[in-house]
Specification:
The protein has 429 residues and is α+β, with helices and mostly antiparallel strands. The chain has 14 helices and 19 strands. The chain folds into 4 domains: 101 residues, Glycogen Phosphorylase B (Rossmann fold, 3-Layer(aba) Sandwich); 80 residues, 2-Layer Sandwich (Dna Ligase, domain 1), CATH 3.30.1490.20; 131 residues, ATP-grasp fold, B domain (D-amino Acid Aminotransferase, Chain A, domain 1, 2-Layer Sandwich); 83 residues, Aldehyde oxidase/xanthine dehydrogenase, a/b hammerhead (Aldehyde Oxidoreductase, domain 3), CATH 3.90.1170.50. α7 crosses α8.
Length: 429
Amino acid sequence: MSGKRVLVVGTTPDYVELIRKRWPGRVLFLTDLHHREGAVEPAPEPDEEVVSDLSDDISAIYATQNLEEHLSRYDLALSGVTCYDCESLELASVIARWWKLPFHSERSVLLSRNKYESKRVWDEKGVYCPASAFAGNKRELSKALSITGLPAVLKPLTGAGSELVFRCETEGEAAKALDFILDSLSAHHDLRMYPVGGRTSPRNRIVVEEWLDLNEFSCEFILTGEYAKVFRVAKKVRELGEDGSPRTLAYLVPALARTGLAPGKLEEFMEYAARALDFTSGLLMADFFVSFGRPVILELTPRPSGDCIPHLTRLASGFDTIGAALDLAEGRPLALPREEDYRTMAGLRLLAKKAGVIKSIDAGKIAAAPGVREVYIRRSPGHLVALPPEDYDSFVLGHVIFEPGPAASLEEQCETLSALLKVEYEAAR
């Protein structure tokens, strides 16, 4: 089978299955061996996927050789490169450079992935962001807290989501969190998310950030050589987990009006923040606050949003961000949604409250609830749930997309829907 394919670098088997079904014959997947070995989803056809060890730089070199052999074997050529996962962005950048295809530069990727360096650059260039410092021991932590103040947020330099993120009220709490994060990172299995080596390795240092008690938003935008165009803004519903980690419970769209920002101000800000990290084009996502009428950026990542946001965006506006990344990789034009194109919808993450092996899981009452547009359960009987801070993925059971009603607050509606999920666990042995 000959032809051109968009290369998707290092995504998860559930995304592989979704993409190959929605866009059959269009994509070639470079998949991590460890992801494929543990997958419950069926493997793609042989010509659709290159399975290789992507765990470190040396393995990645062999992976590119395997990719080259695969292209030759099946008479395929790459029409573009894209990536949906933080830990695979650097490899995607390297592959794009080797194949002379458009993608973000390695420098931009590395700057954006480092939660301290990105803020250092933004601060130097006048981009509003929380105060931050790095710390690898108690002395550096004390100095960092003198910069950020308390409460403060401690997190890994290169993590994703809410993994190993802690909000600390006192220096004593921060010291305990520092020890816990560094101990957890030293034994962490993900070498791509947290590379090993060097005094400033993400396993030896963390970032300490100023805690901003403000509404948090996320957005996605297209950056071109001339402008930035924001096409999705969501308001986050946050909560503090029992382990003290702040995490997102739900997203609400549309939310540009809820920011209170003047038209065009968010786009102007995001363009400047992206160019400060040397990005020139592409689809990017960002988390930000609004303080006294101005955006304050928290993080910027050069990929489409994950979690339940692609499902929420697609149902609320008809725009498919997963497909948009494929189109951009091939240089195809995009018809971006406007704020007024969105129906008011929320995406609720269904999170386990208890650890254990799932015996049964039933979302029937959620599906029958008024306003519910989609229920997705990603776990099945036999799945082992571990709670944060031990594990930040296995406790995510799925999501619900719904249209909020006027009678109760969004937080109350999220709580009501979450309570309708019935999960039984096997008896402890």
